[in-house]
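Good day; I would like, with your permission, to put a structural problem before you. What I wish to show you is a protein chain and, alongside it, a tokenised description of its three-dimensional fold. I would ask you to consider whether the tokens describe a fold that such a sequence might reasonably adopt. You will find the record immediately after this paragraph:
***
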Amino acid sequence: MFSLFLMPFLAQAPPSLVPDYFFFWAPLPIALVLTEKSKRNLKTLRRNKTVLVVTSIVIFSILPFLAAAAGDRQILGTALSITDASAKACFINTRVTDTTVYGYIGRAQMDYTKLLLCGSGECGEAAMANMQLMREAGLDVREVVIPGEHSFVEINIDGKWMIPTGSAMINMTTLVNQRLVDPGSLSYMIAIEGNSFVELTSQYVPTDTITIVVTKNGEPLTDIQVSLVRSGPLSAQLPDAGRYFRTDVNGTVTLHLGKPRFIGQYQGTDEFYWIYVNNRKTIYNVTSTGTGLSRLVDVPLK
């Protein structure tokens, strides 16, 4: 699927040596072989310099894409031959995991084509690749996001949403219990469905109900962007980066927030969220006790 022989270098090289689309260098060994062979016939090389230049450009430009596409289709072809949905999902997830270099150096930045070619990304890119391949393989799949912390996929197996991990499927409760050990809490989680999202937090952890009311001159503001921002080692934007809550006709946004309580290396992460309206920070913030309380926050705009 990816240019595996480049990955060890790509994962360890300094950022200055790994520009975007580093994969264009992949055919270099082929070009060197062609050059070495051409030395045996210098006169021919000089007469066919234009042909050699054009050939080199074609190799540098097209070969990586052809190789990536072939690998992608090979994975999909194998997946389509697997009849059991759980086994199919686990196969795709394993291949994506094994062929992705996890790190920020040369990261694909949610570009599927670039991920195929350079293979460098984080959980978000892996979830993107899983979504693409699993949908093409005929699976009912959705992306789940714990903002600022983790992204992964869920597969609908016989009416139950399950998570492929290695050669086994686990349910969300198992994953949530792992998150409660490290980083120590689960304050918010959504499932992305098309251009919208579904809040999952209260299904798995105790939450408080937070209602935010945005007004101006005492009048509610409708269809206003609202987001919550947390700072620290696990900084996050709720509901997710690039997504927003929107006020209803009463100027309100309601969400369910689990208690943010971070431990270990994640200590120092804020246990509250600043309220942003139309991407502007307000003086108001919210948190959660995780005990089922309801809190109303008025955000009057000037």
Observations:
- The first strand starts at residue 101 and ends at 102.
- Residues 49-80 form the longest helix (32 residues).
- Residues 14 and 105 are 8 Å apart (CA to CA).
- Residues 206-301 form a domain with the Immunoglobulin-like fold (CATH 2.60.40.1120).
